[in-house]
Specification:
alpha+beta, three-stranded antiparallel beta sheet, 3 helices, disulfide bond
Length: 239
C-alpha cells in the first residue's frame, strides 16, 4: 500500500486527523503479521485505520480508536461522545439508536429476529425479549393414549407428543426409579373434581405431579356424596 493511499485513508477517518498526526500513526511501508488474526464470531476482517493491515472489526459496545475501527457493515462508528468522561470511545450506531448483539450479530432497536426456530425475539432499548414458537401444551393420559411422552422428531423444530407402549413405559420407569430426579420437583395439582355420581360410590379426579417421577398425571379417588335412597319394596299382586 502506498503512502498516498495510507494518508488518504487517514484523512477520511472518523477522527479527521491532520496529516502530521496521520504520518505518526501510520508507518510506511506496512509491516503486518504473516497470518491474519482469528476473529470472534460476528467480527469480520477489515483494514485498520491506516488502510494497512487486516484486523478484527470492533463490535457494538467494544472500545475503538483510529487504528481499531468498528464494523461498518453493521452501521457502527467509533463514538467519541463519552470520551470526555474518561470512558474512551466505543462502537455505536451512527444515528445513536439503541441496539443489541445476539450470537455475534447486531440488531437494530425494534428489529424482530429468530435466533433459533423455537424463538422469536425483538430488540428493544439495548436488550431483547423473546416468545416461544413451540406450543407448551400438556397432553394428559387418555384411554387410547395412557402413556404420552414428548420427544424430539428429526427434521422438525418443535417436539411432539407420542404414545408409548405399556412395556416400553414400564422399562423406562424402571430405569428412572434406579436414580434420583436430576432437578427439584415443585409439587403442583388441581382441586379434586366433584364426585362422578350424586349418590352412592363414585370417583373424583385431579391433575397432579405428586408422584415419584414428578410427571403430570390424572389421579382418581373414591368418593360418595351421600347414600342412595332405598328402593321401595315390591308388594305381591293381589289375586
Amino acid at each position: 500500500i502506498t503512502a498516498i493511499s495510507q494518508t488518504t485513508a487517514c484523512l477520511d477517518s472518523v477522527m479527521a486527523l491532520p496529516p502530521q498526526v496521520c504520518a505518526q500513526l501510520c508507518r510506511r511501508p506496512c509491516y503486518c503479521p504473516w497470518v491474519p488474526p482469528r476473529c470472534p464470531r460476528g467480527s469480520p476482517l477489515v483494514l485498520d485505520g491506516c488502510g494497512c493491515c487486516k484486523i478484527c472489526a470492533r463490535r457494538l459496545g467494544e472500545p475503538c480508536d483510529f487504528l481499531h475501527v468498528c464494523d461498518q457493515s453493521q452501521g457502527l462508528i467509533c463514538d467519541y461522545s463519552m470520551a470526555s468522561a474518561g470512558t474512551g470511545a466505543t462502537c455505536n450506531f451512527e444515528d445513536s439508536e439503541e441496539g443489541c448483539e445476539v450470537n455475534g450479530r447486531v440488531y437494530r432497536d425494534g428489529e424482530v429476529f429468530q435466533p433459533s426456530c423455537k424463538l422469536q425475539c425483538r430488540c428493544l432499548d439495548g436488550g431483547f425479549t423473546c416468545v416461544p414458537l413451540c406450543q407448551e401444551d400438556v397432553r394428559l393420559p387418555t384411554p387410547d393414549c395412557p402413556y404420552p411422552r414428548r420427544v424430539e422428531i428429526p427434521g422438525k423444530c418443535c417436539p411432539e407428543w407420542i404414545c408409548e407402549a405399556r412395556d416400553h413405559h414400564l422399562r423406562r420407569n424402571a430405569v428412572a426409579a434406579s436414580s434420583l430426579l436430576p432437578y427439584p420437583c415443585q409439587e403442583w395439582s388441581t382441586e379434586w373434581s366433584a364426585c362422578s355420581v350424586t349418590c352412592g360410590m363414585g370417583f373424583s379426579t385431579r391433575v397432579s405431579n405428586q408422584n415419584r417421577y414428578c410427571r403430570l398425571e390424572t389421579q382418581r379417588r373414591l368418593c360418595m356424596a351421600r347414600p342412595c335412597p332405598a328402593l321401595p319394596a315390591a308388594f305381591p299382586a293381589v289375586s
